[in-house]
Design brief:
Helix content: 40-55%
Distance between the termini: 42 Å
Largest sheet: 6 strands, mixed
Keywords: Chromosome partition, DNA-binding
Radius of gyration: 21 Å
CATH class of the largest domain: Alpha Beta
Number of domains: 3
Order of helices and strands: EEEHEEHEHHHHHHHHHEEH
Number of helices: 12
Family: Belongs to the ParB family.
CATH superfamily of the largest domain: Conserved hypothetical protein from pyrococcus furiosus pfu- 392566-001, ParB domain
Protein name: ParB-like N-terminal domain-containing protein
GO cellular component, one term: chromosome
GO molecular function: DNA binding
Strand content: 5-15%
CATH architecture of the largest domain: Alpha-Beta Complex
Length: 288
């Protein structure tokens, strides 16, 4: 018999690491309720026949396999009861990684399909009622992506927002905890948070402290952010034109920001992403 174990207060392991649960109020409608996680035999779980992803080559799973080998499966799979065992709802890549690693069991939440649909409806309803602050919205969007295998575009259609709006909101989860809390507590508004998240990571906290200290308006914040951008651009202009051209070529091919740090004949290529979905899309494009 599968052995259940509690997950503490809330379904914390279903929340991506970038979602810091302590930031939100305990009664937040964006957070999952308390559920039980079961250790279920891998050979009892059937693949989801409605899985839209068909390309699962071993190479694309290597990073996940390495992570799971070192840390275990941190985010439980979600399954539903089947005549001969269980059918997978979400967690295809984790299941495949577990099979490669020859795991006997995997952590999973057993949920009826109807309950899964109710959860989706509850999240969408709260989003449409505008009962959530921007960070709670971002958490809800991320849950819809993680727990229902939705793309950002599909989330947008369900809640009546553009894909760009979904992406911009999800990016708020990359902000430091103090800035997320300030947004929740209305010390800063969404427009200011959007400006801050557009800055390089190392500039965000200093800029945020400056905003609070000087009590800047949105327009003033945008003006200060432009000064930061100009200084950064000036530093970039000093780069080798050939390197800048290669950065631009990669950015057009991948659809995201790319930086090349070159030292002699060696260096690094830094590719930025703002959600798990964007990371998966980048891996797919690079693999192709």
């Amino acid at each position: 018999m599968s052995k259940p174990f509690g997950l503490g207060k809330g379904l914390s392991s279903l929340i991506p690491k970038k979602i810091i649960q302590e930031v939100l109020p305990k009664d937040s409608k964006a957070l999952p309720g308390e559920e039980m996680v079961m250790q279920i035999p891998v050979d009892k779980i059937k693949a989801n026949p409605h899985q839209p992803r068909t390309d699962f080559n071993h190479e694309s799973l290597e990073d996940l396999i390495s992570s799971i080998k070192e840390h275990g499966i941190l985010q439980p799979l979600i399954v539903t009861l089947d005549a001969d065992g269980y059918q997978l709802i979400t967690g295809e890549r984790r299941l495949r990684a577990a099979q490669v690693l020859e795991f006997k069991t995997v952590p999973a939440i057993v949920r009826e399909a109807e309950e899964q649909q109710k959860l989706e409806l509850a999240l969408v309803e709260n989003l449409q009622r505008k009962n959530l602050n921007p960070i709670e919205e971002a958490v809800a969007f991320q849950r819809l992506i993680d727990e229902f295998n939705l793309t950002q575009e599909e989330v947008g259609k369900k809640v009546g927002k553009s894909r760009t709006a979904i992406t911009n909101t999800l990016r708020l989860l990359t902000l430091p905890t103090d800035i997320q809390k300030a947004l929740i507590n209305e010390q800063i508004n969404y427009s200011i948070a959007r400006v801050i998240v557009g800055l390089p990571p190392e500039q965000r906290m200093p800029f945020f402290k400056k905003v609070l200290k000087q009590d800047l308006t949105v327009r003033a914040v945008e003006g200060e952010a432009k000064k930061v951008a100009v200084k950064r651009h000036f530093r970039q202009v000093q780069k080798d034109p050939n390197v800048l051209a290669k950065e631009e070529e990669l950015q057009q091919a991948l659809g995201t920001k790319v930086s090349i740090k070159k030292s002699g004949s060696s260096g690094q290529i830094i590719i930025e992403f703002y959600s798990d979905e964007e990371l998966s899309e980048l891996v797919r494009r690079i693999s192709d």
